[in-house]
Amino acid sequence: MGDHRVVAPTDGPAPVLLAVTGGIAAYRACEVVRGLVKADVPVQVAMTRAARRFVGETTFAGLSRRHVLTDDPDPNGPIYPHLDAARAARVMAIVPASANTIARLAHGLADDVVAESALALAGQLLIAPAMNHRMWLHPATQQNVETLKVRGAIIVGPEDGQLAEGEEGPGRLAQPDRITQAIRMLLGSGSLKGKRVLITAGGTREPLDSVRFLGNRSSGKMGVALADEALARGAEVTTILSNTLVRPMGGTQVDAPTAADLAAATQAHAKTADIILMAAAVADFRPAAAHDTKRARTGSWDLHLEPTEDILAGIAKNRLPHQTIIGFAAEDSEDIAKAREKRERKGVDLIVLNDISDPAQGFDSDDNAVVLVSGSDEIRVERAPKPQIAAAILDRVEALVV
Asked: Residue 199's beta-bridge partner residues?
């Protein structure tokens, strides 16, 4: 067979070495490479023999614009390609990482170009596992993962859901956008470097008794996606989390389950923030009095509710001259006039309007669609995974930063 690899415009050192191992999720590594290249991050791809059975190296060569490292010697290439790539890489990301690859890394084997590169790596190792849920949950795999964590590896995923073979459970490759964000975060440079960003995420819960509460359906995925994207852009990020299903990949994290907790935490951290994004779904009302113990199921239960503190308005009222403040509005329709009125009434720079009447976006969903309402215009962001929405929001925020 002839050499069909695509020659890259430049083959200089790449800060990211992306290793692809065998598994049906190998095709999703293409999205990670595409995302990094779009962010102007040079990527060197390496592939195991098993990975090449799922996706051809020509695909990755075309996406990365570089020769792909494989176990087939290149007579015109460097003598020690794995050493050169490992020396240049600030981050080596294995996407997807099979159970076999994780085991080989944990035991220090160096029997192919990926394992050799990992053993010679001076930078940060990131592993995005993907496999059958029984393989992932097997004690041997879990022990191997813990071994790699102890050595400093960052583990992204896997996610819970339907697997390629039709079974359900933890084993799906993490979303490519999230992997891309994690890699960019580890690179530690970007458009928000030097900025301090405060983000609220999730939904507050107001106690009725020692067991029950008033809450909402917010999962916190949108706020966490914003935190991950801000981290990827080099910001110093603090996230105030209210009962979220997910957590950011880094930064300072503060748990605040109730509206009062969230108000106190936000006010404490707002003083040092340059950018504040209030993405949490905060209760407008709470029970005037909560029972200390579980209320028995007898008769009816009349509740008296009282308003909670308007956190966003308070933060905006006491804002510092250099701060940029973003509010969020979850509505049952795309009412731009209402969002514009809210922006002016709250005194914020931007309102992110989210129409929650569509169950395919917003609360509990991995996707979202928003309208960014500022003082001068409205920008519609069509439905996309929440990490992409987060990137669009922060693009607009950066344009507003004082």
From this structure: 239, 277
